[in-house]
Amino acid sequence: MSAQQSQGIQTLLEAEKEAAKIVQQARQYRVQKLKDAHSEASKEIEEYKKAKEAEFKAFEASHAGTTSEAQAAVDKDTEVKLKSITDQYNKNKEAVVQKLLDRVVLVKPELHRNLKKAQS
Predict the structure, then answer these.
(1) How many helices, marked H, and strands, marked E, lie in the chain?
(2) What whole-number distance in Å separates Cα of residue 82 and Cα of residue 93?
(3) What are the transmembrane regions (predicted)?
(4) Quick one: which of 42, 44, 56, 79 is 20 to 30 A from 73 by CA?
């Protein structure tokens, strides 16, 4: 009976070793599959990123002309307004200076209104 028991124990030990090998292989397989999935996802992300970047560049190129046209229109409008302001300045400069000098030089001395009320 002891020979049978030792043979049974030996069979169990061999089965346990075989099971440990199978578990180890399954772990290695799982790790490899995770690595493969990660690398595949990275590739897909890069491809998607490149596609979106190209799409953005195309959009930017198609709308860049509009920006330069708008800038030119704004520059032209600014020049017109600046010229108008400069013309108005040159036209009214002498009159404004004369009004300021008249106010400073031509003084009409008179009593303050509160002083007039106090004397009455």
Answers:
(1) 2, 0
(2) 16
(3) none
(4) 56
Q: Which of 17-21, 57-61, 89-93, 116-120 has the lowest mean pLDDT?
A: 116-120
HSE (side-chain half, CA atoms, 13 Å) at 20 = 6
Residue corresponding to tokens 């106010």? 103
For residue 36, CA distances in Å to 42, 46, 47, 114 come to: 10, 15, 17, 97
The residue length of the chain stands at 120
Query: How far, in Å, CA of 112 to CA of 4, rounded?
Result: 135
List alpha helices for the chain, DSSP H. 2-105, 113-119
Mean pLDDT of 106-111: 82
Task: Write down the pTM of the prediction.
Answer: 0.43
25 has a pLDDT exceeding 70: yes
- From CA 11, how far away is CA 19, in angstroms rounded? 12
**Rounded-to-integer distance, Cα 42 and Cα 48, Å:** 10
